[in-house]
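Model it.
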Amino acid sequence: MSADKSAAVISQNQGNVALVLMQSPPVNALSKAVRIGLIEEIKAALNDDSIQAIVISSQQPLFSGGADISEFSGGDFEPPLPDVLDLIENADKPVIAVLNGPAFGGGLEVALACHYRITFAANKVGLPEVNLGILPGAGGTQRLPRLAGVAKALDMIVTGKPAKASTVKGAFDLIVEQPEALMEESLNFINELIKNGAAIKRTKDISIDPASAPAELFAQFRQGIAKQARGFFSPERCIQAVEAAVELPMEAGLKREGELFMECMQSPQARAQQHFFFAERAAGHVDDFDKSTPVRDIKKVGIIGAGTMGGGIAMNFANAGIPVVMLELKQEALDKGLAVIRRNYENSAKKGKLSADDVENRMALLMGATDYDALSDVDLVIEAVFEKMEVKKQVFGKLGEVCKPGAILASNTSTLDLDEIAASTSRPQDVIGLHFFSPANVMKLLEVVKGEKTAADVIKTSMKMAKTIRKVAVLVGVCFGFVGNRMIEPYGRESNRLTLEGASPEQVDKVIYDFGMPMGPNTMGDMAGLDIGYFVRQSRQEFISHDPSYAVVADRLVEEGRVGLKVGKGIYLYEDGSRVPVPDPQVLEIAKQEADKLGVEQRAHSEQEILERCIFPLINEGAQILEEGIAAKSSDIDVIYVYGYGFPVYRGGPMQYADEIGLDKVYQAMCKYRDELGEYGKMWFEPAPLLKQLAEQGKRFADYRK
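Modeled.
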């Protein structure tokens, strides 16, 4: 019996039962220390003649969060988790897992190897490895189908989504209703087991009836997940591993699981997904404040603007239980905005995501106002008005007058100079950018924009607040468009130029969709409204006037009233209110007319050229952003692009994708198009100095720190 309080695993004997308890905060990750501890304590209990049963549980609020994935890069897996599970499963005394809290990944695999499993009904269990581009590699794909049934196991393993224990009944021998009664009822169950001779039920001895899992079940499942699994490597291998559980005895099934696990581990998708897992967590670690930096209280929030964006932002705070004052100068606009929010909540209630009480409780947190004085006691105010500098400056001048000292003044601007906005107040240190992405109540990303004079405690408070409203915050500096919208500019520019050169919009969109984006740039433009980009171009003539071909096809479409989906025609046609884009030969004719005017030769384009010309300039812009210090690290750019723009997570983000294929490849392609595309190439395809430097040194963006 071990009672070392500093050990990762301890054991406490209660009569003839050994309680083996994991205590490795914060989540009982199955690190080397935990694996060794489990082996030592279980062996000690097996060798103790006074012990008749062994319980594995936890001193932490959860059972185990699974593998310690920080070990993946080190490669020290000794002793491997399967060795721990073999010891448990082959034990000659009954081993019972008591899940006092969530069990995920390897944590659930530990429980599945035990002879009995006990938990409470609302507890969450899951095998989320697919989210890291891999599959459960310690028997999860073989044991869960044997215990919970093939259909349930497939769903849990391939989607990676957690399930309530009450829905995985076959996996548990006792499900207690109330968590507080768990240990008492568990000990009663175990004592009864011992009294009755305590049969040892090894999961490996269960065989699955092939009739319960016919080939059609797997075929239907593959068909059902095809859309969500597009481009990912591991979901199909997860399915194959579960098929092995049906077709093979346990030992052969485990061998097959191991082979499929290694296939996944060695795939670029797994590298990308694991990179992104760490990137998301690293985004919160910034050098602009430390532990001693104070945090301002955010107990009440003001939102200026009750339109689509303002309403969506307000919902985030109401969802988190924070009161909101919504300001619109016209009562009609305010009433309309509040009505839209109510409708959104009621739609969620109809889908069973909220109760009727939830809807009313959240609406009660939203107060309307038509006078700036209503913002006098808010701790944070977010401006979400029209994207024009003069309008923003007017608003911030007023906020400087009415808001209390210490209130944070935030702008939701997506492109404008935050320092210029801050200069319109008497307290620039309180000004920060909070760039929500639309729809603001759905999108996870929040670009937090620090100005030249933004105080450290304002930055820290904003990053902490993002977690409160369940956003992933990335801290960026000031430049036109910050990180996300600055990088999307060359992507859209090249898409438009390719159409001018004779590539059809649908050809461009197909290449980009096949690469993994949720839609191509032309479809995206139509969905957002082509007039948005048009107005931005009108305000940025000094940046683009040297290129007479810049977005001329899109400009012409807007000038002819073809602004996209909202009017039924843009780059594509949309028939009878449908969102399905239909190619329009007239757009090709417009592109030809504009190409003739400019002397641009139309020609055929390969898929490779389309992909490289859309994606590589975006990466090149990211290199410039890194070099300028607008983003602190390349992984921050990846988080922005995956969560803000739908860049495929199985590619890890644009900078990880570039690191994966090699920066020399990106650099050489940029040089090639610079040289082959004449004056246009010289304008837009000059490689960023940092890209050139890292490519020549054989380094990656991930290696770079300014």
